[in-house]
Design goal:
The structure is a homodimer of 471-residue chains. Helices cover 25% and strands 25% of the residues of chain A. Chain A has 12 helices and 25 strands. The N and C termini of chain A lie far apart (64 Å). Chains A, B: GO terms for molecular function: oxidoreductase activity.
Amino acid sequence: MERDPFVVVGGDAAGLSAASKFRRETNRDVVVFERGQWVSYAHCGLPYFVEGSVDRLTDLLSLSPSDIAERGIDLRRGHEVVAVDPAARTVTVDAGDERFDQPYSELLVATGARATTGDFDASLDGVFTIHGLDSAAALDAYLTAPDAYDPARLGDGPVDEARVTHNAALDPPTRAAIVGGGYVGVEMAEALTARGVAVHLFQRSGHVLQPFGAAVAERVEPHLTERGVTVHTDATVDRLVGDERIEAIVADGERFPVELAVLGVGVRPNTAVLDGTGVARGPNGAIRTDAYGRTSLPAVHAAGDVATARHAVTGTETWIPLGLTANRAGRAVGATVAGDPTPVGDVAGTAVVKAFEMECGRVGIVDEAAAADAGFDPVSETITAGSRSGYYPGGDETTVTLVADRTTGRVLGGAIAGRDRAAIRVDTLATAIEADLTVAELERLDLAYAPPFSPVWDPVLVAAKVVTGKL
Amino acid sequence: MERDPFVVVGGDAAGLSAASKFRRETNRDVVVFERGQWVSYAHCGLPYFVEGSVDRLTDLLSLSPSDIAERGIDLRRGHEVVAVDPAARTVTVDAGDERFDQPYSELLVATGARATTGDFDASLDGVFTIHGLDSAAALDAYLTAPDAYDPARLGDGPVDEARVTHNAALDPPTRAAIVGGGYVGVEMAEALTARGVAVHLFQRSGHVLQPFGAAVAERVEPHLTERGVTVHTDATVDRLVGDERIEAIVADGERFPVELAVLGVGVRPNTAVLDGTGVARGPNGAIRTDAYGRTSLPAVHAAGDVATARHAVTGTETWIPLGLTANRAGRAVGATVAGDPTPVGDVAGTAVVKAFEMECGRVGIVDEAAAADAGFDPVSETITAGSRSGYYPGGDETTVTLVADRTTGRVLGGAIAGRDRAAIRVDTLATAIEADLTVAELERLDLAYAPPFSPVWDPVLVAAKVVTGKL
């Protein structure tokens, strides 16, 4: 008898990576239910579409529906899975005009995460979160003068046309507030500046890019200012003001007139599909998974932004929703379900972000207090060193924060900022961290040296030397 | 009684790193004998001085003699050590006008390497090796029209003025031959092109940049051609033709009229100082050293381009003269002699080179035959992948060759080429190799992803996926 299909809930990074890998390994059936119309899009590309450096919205799609069909994946868009019955091994699917139960042999929940709006009224015109192609399309339309809007920007995809049309008809903003100085906030500051909008960036804590540490922020904040962004740190945004359309933002009692607010205040895992199943949860309510992406429910996997993962440094459960690890976890689950048990891999919290010309990277545990909480005895140093030999033109000071454990010497985390090939250097640290290298071993690595690319002692090695000297 | 000083032979990377580290750790005496006048210069910067992207010759100095004096190092320039008596623990020093014996408590031989000229007559005007500041100064003078030469190019250093004056008086060349397509050859092709000289590059084997493998060369060679360099591979240079000044080069029987020839045909360790001591030798006659830089002679260390080192992949003795490992080995010997035993570290053969816009890197064992010779069962794959998300502008195809051992899965080596941040990505592979990661572990690394810097799957990860699939 034919086995029931492998059912995947969610048609983005983790879900389609799983379905694709599964189909490469087996000819069994896989069904992907996606509640929306868009599938397989690059979330991280949204700011660059808004900025205008990506021509068409559909350029952000990795796979078209026909690519997906060619892979033998049964993709059902506009199909929302509203319930899971782990005992019966069925999901209940709401397809709009019908509702049905779909049996599964194995299930993958890959429903991702959603942008939150905090306590703010996100229903006003001119208020956006950056999540999903429709929000980017709407914001792009809003930023464009009504007589200048070109629908060719959308490409040929299932865009929410009513929302685009509505926003395209409004007068474009000249002033914007960005609430939240994380990746999205910083990337949107660059994007909106490129679109000619004056930007105020509000960050609740003491510095932007909190997970990158203070030293990176000390490079980024003056650079944002230099490029015309007004940065407010230790700032509490009280409310958004407006009737139909946003008119102002009030922060610490001060009123800033704006016609645009972008909310980058956080994301939450989309776990509702498993409500009522008693599935085990981890940090932030994310679905708890093991080394193979298995949940506490039989034959139910979770992967990507909805799921927890093991942290490479602490070995404990964590929730860090990012693109590569979502793709990888999905791919691993696809292989596992197909019969080739494949670990999803640890997450090291590696992240890189561009802020105008400034490149920033971070990995592992950068914050000393967090390292102490995890049971380490952290030693942290920040250095600056040239990105190239001093005599070679075009280099830039590169700032490196390196954190190690005093007891074992192990590298725990690091962060990097600079204008010249700085971000990609975090990969050296990510590799060292996942390989459990000590800082003395890091110091002795035979890294690249040539005047146009690195001084004799790469900034990463300089940091390692200084931290080794403190142990 | 005062101990005899720590004596260092050679005042460049390894020697001065050793002396500096020694003085930071102890107040004992250190004497550095340098036979020439230049100390502490950046050999790797010479092509960029010739190119004109470095303003003054003395910009290539890391430390001035007064910096060195401030560190408490007794530097004696123009002092050649002509013999070592390991039994008596003395060196014989020829200071030009006097010759004396200097006792030592410990000795470091850091005499570096020299460029060879093969069978070619390097005494003709217009024939250069790129080794030492004087050769770069002379070539720069030769490249400049007599009435345009500005001695300010030299800065304020102990340059060989007669050689510069002689070359500055000659008509500048319009056509050049570079013999040897290694790093120096490729870098000089770029430098001479920038100086308006038409370049023929002759490489004896089938492709340029031999240690980087064929796939890198397949990117570099067309790029050199595109930039106006004529590349001759599988080419044997028969002889240089000329009376006083070079007039032509003959390769495979064909005559190429040139006014300049740059010889980049290899380097040899400067071991003569230990002739007659019976010191043990390794590959290429380099001085054999152990994990702490000790030679077979009591109290005699060697470091840098004159010494062997342990290869990170094979664990066997090798001779790979490069800048970082010379600096590091010297520094480690300085610490060890000061009383803090410090391993010199392995070498992984990490190298990066810029060829116009093309960035290339390599590490470990790239050549399958060499891997087999070292006892591995190599699996090698070459892939190309984007350096950025496909929709983000400014990226370039990045070529990655990855070599792993079929039996253990261990990463053995890799090479990279591309125009967008390609070279520095080799550090990821260097770290993985020195940490003994398998290719499956490499594939699961949490590396950086953001559209401006890397696609979801970095080219290194794509290569790891493909090689893992072949194991």
